[in-house]
Design goal:
Length: 171
């Protein structure tokens, strides 16, 4: 009987952290995907109306500000730079991630997140983004999906590749 209880305890010790990690990943991608889709559509509409991508927010311009507590934060009211982009939130109105965009006009020498550095924070698994010679943007999300974790997850998509790259996912 004790052996059975010990085996069940060991299996639970292995399975429970894995379950919570997968839950955090699912919660993050369920939030980030619709937000990135909304932002991507607005970026392309802005280009059609103005001929260029909107001014960059920069990696330090996260909105809402990077979430230190893992709790939900309201998106409304949107700041002026978001309303200028004509953002209409179609997903949840409360988020756990901070979002920003970085844009560049062709040949101005700007680059994307550098190796080993994402959002101004050193990362073990950085994104690779090679800036093209034409106008471009990338969208960045910085997330803490659980207050019990100290690390952030990062998500990135760009005008060059609509897939969502992930760094430190599930934190």
């Amino acid at each position: 009987m004790l052996v059975t209880v010990a085996v069940i305890g060991i299996l639970a010790a292995i399975a429970i952290p894995s379950f919570f990690g997968e839950t955090r990943k699912a919660r993050a991608i369920a939030e980030v995907t619709p937000m990135f889709n909304d932002l991507r559509i607005r970026m392309e509409q802005y280009v059609q109306e103005h001929g260029v991508y909107p001014d960059t927010q920069g990696e330090g311009g996260l909105y809402p500000i990077a979430n230190p507590d893992g709790a939900l934060h309201a998106l409304q009211p949107l700041p002026g730079n978001w309303t200028a982009l004509n953002i209409r939130i179609s997903g949840a109105d409360e988020v756990r991630c901070g979002y920003t965009w970085v844009t560049s006009r062709s040949n101005n020498g700007a680059t994307g997140p550098t190796a080993g550095n994402v959002g101004g924070i050193a990362q073990a698994a950085p994104f690779v983004f090679v800036a093209p010679t034409n106008d471009w943007y990338y969208l960045l999300a910085k997330c803490r999906m659980d207050p019990s974790h100290t690390d952030y997850s990062y998500y990135l998509t760009s005008s060059l590749d609509s897939t969502i790259a992930k760094s430190n996912e599930g934190q």
